[in-house]
Amino acid sequence: MTKESCNEISCNIIKDLLPLYIEGLTSEESNSLIEEHLKECEACRELYEEMKKDMCLGVTGEESSDFKENLNAEAETIDFMKKSNKKLRLGFGFGLVAVIALCLCLLLARGYFNSYSAPLQLVEISSLRVEEGNAHIDGYLKDSSQGVKDVAFSYKDGELSIEIMSGMKTAFSENDFYSDFSGDEKIKTVKLADRVIWENGCDIPAFVADVYAAAHSYIGNMPENGQSVKALGVVERFGNFTNELQTSNEPYGWTLHFEEDMGRWNEEKLKVEFGYYGAMLIATIDNLGYVNFEYAVDGEAHTFSIDEKAADAHYGSSVKEAAKTAEGLYYMMKAW
User: pTM of the predicted model, to two decimals?
Assistant: First the structure.
């Protein structure tokens, strides 16, 4: 490599180092090399003088020293701010984790301590004894993860209402319950979670209680009709169907068009079943006069109909009158 190329390379390096040299950020060894070069190289020396004027903005001597000190102070400030920002980011991260942990704890505490009225379907009643104004109930929750928080009683006009308050099982709440009520007036009806479970000495099974609770007054109310067929288990028994209501003239009627072929059924057995379900719908919907069941057996269309008169004749008494009480509905459903 020639001397000329070495000087050219040296000048390029010096030009790169001059801004740092002017700001006082180069080492002692670099300073010596730069100063030695400036003595020999007029071009670099002129560039140095020009750069110094531009960067120092006319500051010389003592002021130049102050300028360098200011630059160093600014660098220290920037470094401090970087470290502070890092600490802030870490602090924010820890804070966010703490907030999330607190929210999780609150959610767990809510589930741990909160309670709700257990539906009848969740409760298994082992025994219910009623004598005049006194009652004793014991049983357990079917969901083993749930615990009983409280057993609450309220009495009005012969009706005793019981609420089993349940929630997440804890060390303070067991899965089973037993409790007593004592009053001065005679108990005629016992309800649990808005379902009648005892009436006039008769224990009311859960499925009867559901059908009784679904009773309503108007066949034109399709959502309530849906609750009635759900309580009776019509879909589970026969499959899906579509509805057709006749509410223009009395007697009002309901036609159920079943989608599934009933070839698997014995036809006589099927008619008995339709008679039972139709009578229960007529009994529990006040203004319903008849029910039609339209279905197919091996592809052949059939219709089975039952009206209020036929239902009364089969039962031997008014089905609508029987269904006015949970006790009456129970005996009718049992005897059909």
Answer: 0.64
